[in-house]
Structures are given as C-alpha cells and as structure tokens.
C-alpha cells in the first residue's frame, strides 16, 4: 500500500474489536476539510470510531462532526462522490443518521445527499419475482437479510460511473 499511496495512516489494531479492519465503516471523509465520525449499527462496533476520529483530528481536517444516538450509520451504506453523497437505509443505517448527516452537509455547504432504501429495494425485487415459491414478504425479508450494506449492490468505478449488482435487489 505504501508503494502506491503517499500518506498511509496506520491505526493500531484492537483485538477486542474484530471488525475494526473494516475501517471505512467508522468515518466519512467529505473532501479535504470535512469528516463525519459514524456510530456503527452493530453495538459490538461502537468502540471503533474513537481511534479513527483521533487519527482524523491529527491529520488536521478542520471540521469533524460526530453522529449521536439514536443515529446508526455504517460506511458500507455510504458512497461519497465529489458531486453527491449516496446513503442506503439498511439494517445498520437508520433515518436518524441520514437526518444528522444531511444537517452536517448543509452546515458545511457539502454536496447534496440522496437516500435509498435497501428494504424497499428488497420488497420491489420480491414483488417483481412472479415465480417465487414463497410469499413476497418472506422473499423481501430474505433479500434484505442477504444484503448487509447499500454498497453490496452499488459501487463507484470512478466519479461518474456507478456499478450496480446484476441481481434482483440491484435492479430494484
């Protein structure tokens, strides 16, 4: 990594937080002057943002906002692009987090925020499946439960090209 990135910041591993390797879940960096420290949806991950926030502070980012309870947000549900921030409501990211994030972006003249719903996409995918042997509600629950994060179905190839999973929930 150090051979291709000029500034790598290493944060010591925390053996009490086995998912801390998924560092993108703990903070959103929005340009060079703004970061938002998240509040992970899984209670076991709540200790993780502290060390990441401290590292961001040491980097000198001038505006650091922090989501507060009852907001929950995982970075796997957020795609930060230069022209917008895309957020997916999921099992790990709730409407309160979206509300707080929207306020932070507005207060810092950040990019617009667009919100998508993983459960709604799962329901749409289930409704479109006419050959389903189970009820639509059960199919929707199964699709939602198999899709942990918004970025499980949507990713950015570059700042103008989005990749969508070729699955029923991705199509929805």
From TrEMBL:
Is rRNA-binding tagged as a keyword? no
Q: Which domain of life is it from?
A: Eukaryota
Keywords, in A-Z order: Hydrolase
Write out the transmembrane intervals.
none
Q: Which SUPFAM superfamilies match?
A: Pentein
InterPro entries attached to this UniProt entry: DDAH-like
Family assignment?
Belongs to the DDAH family.
Q: What is this protein called?
A: Dimethylargininase
Question: Which species is the source of this protein?
Answer: Volvox africanus
């Amino acid at each position: 990594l150090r051979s291709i990135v000029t500034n790598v910041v290493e944060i010591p591993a925390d053996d009490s937080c086995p998912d801390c390797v998924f560092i993108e879940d703990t903070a959103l960096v929005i340009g060079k002057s703004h970061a938002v420290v998240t509040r992970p949806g899984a209670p076991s991950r709540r200790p993780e943002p502290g060390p990441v926030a401290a590292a961001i502070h040491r980097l000198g980012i001038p505006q650091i906002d922090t989501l507060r309870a009852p907001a929950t947000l995982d970075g796997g549900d957020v795609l930060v692009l230069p022209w917008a921030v895309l957020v997916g409501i999921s099992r790990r990211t709730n409407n309160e987090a979206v509300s707080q994030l929207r306020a932070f972006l507005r207060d810092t003249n950040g990019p617009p925020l667009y919100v998508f719903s993983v459960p709604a996409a799962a329901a749409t995918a289930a409704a479109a499946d006419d050959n389903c042997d189970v009820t639509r509600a059960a199919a929707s629950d199964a699709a939602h439960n198999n899709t942990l994060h918004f970025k499980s179905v949507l990713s950015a190839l570059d700042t103008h090209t989005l990749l969508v999973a070729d699955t029923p929930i991705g199509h929805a």
